[in-house]
């Protein structure tokens, strides 16, 4: 909460303008291209990060596929994760998030601008429909991000089990799977500090369809988690 207050105070002159612009885009998403909406979100995100004493250290941007129609699979540390990735990701992407975050101010508008899907984990029929919708959109050239853990890790940089079902959309779309390792993202909002913080975002080499086509979803999940954990161990500052 302290860092959010600092973010607002340091951008106090621009906050009304950014807030109006964000709500306008969220309410009129079809008036703007995905690139226009993403550029607007990145502008606000960058101002918030700068004001909140946050520096995002991006690695492996060259691993992001040159053609759209891929899926990011990061470890999940908290509400700040998407904002950290957005700061260093040059191409637009959308999100599949649990429905609860759809009521969080600011994130609600951000997800509206991204045309994100909110999934109800208690509703199997709705969850399956989201998978079908994401599959269609990825095949059509949109990029998506899914947190395969389902919920944030309560153990900092140590991920929980990655759920195989989270990879069904990628498997059906036959698209590249891009593991993303987040380091210290949880410290942005969960430590009560507003001191300068360096958050690492590592885009790992994608798993192409040819690599995982004969694997079960649970095997893909375990492999993506393994690659992320390996990257975290190699780069985490003790």
Automatic annotation (TrEMBL):
Reaction(s) catalysed (UniProt annotation)? a 1-acyl-sn-glycero-3-phosphate + an acyl-CoA = a 1,2-diacyl-sn-glycero-3-phosphate + CoA
The protein's superkingdom reads Bacteria
Identify the Pfam families for this entry.
Answer: Acyltransferase (PF01553)
Task: Name the EC number(s).
Answer: 2.3.1.51
What residues does the Phospholipid/glycerol acyltransferase domain cover?
70-185
What domain notes does the record hold?
The HXXXXD motif is essential for acyltransferase activity and may constitute the binding site for the phosphate moiety of the glycerol-3-phosphate.
Can you tell me which family this protein belongs to? Belongs to the 1-acyl-sn-glycerol-3-phosphate acyltransferase family.
**Name used for this protein in its record:** 1-acyl-sn-glycerol-3-phosphate acyltransferase
């Amino acid at each position: 909460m302290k860092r959010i207050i600092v973010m607002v105070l340091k951008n106090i002159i621009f906050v009304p303008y950014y807030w109006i612009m964000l709500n306008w885009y969220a309410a009129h998403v079809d008036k703007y291209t995905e690139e226009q909406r993403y550029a607007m979100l990145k502008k606000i995100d960058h101002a918030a990060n700068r004001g909140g004493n946050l520096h995002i250290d991006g690695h492996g941007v060259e691993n992001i596929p040159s053609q759209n129609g891929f899926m990011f699979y990061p470890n999940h540390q908290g509400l700040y994760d998407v904002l950290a990735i957005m700061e260093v990701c040059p191409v637009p992407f959308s999100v599949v998030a649990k429905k609860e975050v759809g009521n969080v101010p600011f994130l609600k508008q951000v997800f509206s601008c991204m045309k994100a899907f909110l999934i109800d984990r208690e509703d199997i029929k709705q969850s399956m429909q989201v998978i079908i919708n994401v599959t269609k959109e990825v095949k059509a050239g949109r990029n998506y991000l899914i947190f395969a853990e389902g919920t944030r890790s309560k153990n900092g940089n140590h991920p929980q089990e990655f759920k195989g079902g989270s990879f069904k959309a990628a498997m059906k779309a036959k698209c590249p799977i891009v593991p993303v390792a987040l380091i210290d993202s949880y410290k942005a909002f969960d430590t009560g500090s507003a001191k300068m913080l360096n958050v690492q975002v590592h885009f790992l080499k994608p798993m192409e369809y040819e690599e995982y086509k004969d694997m079960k979803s649970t095997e893909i999940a375990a492999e993506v988690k393994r690659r992320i954990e390996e990257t975290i161990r190699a780069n985490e500052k003790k």
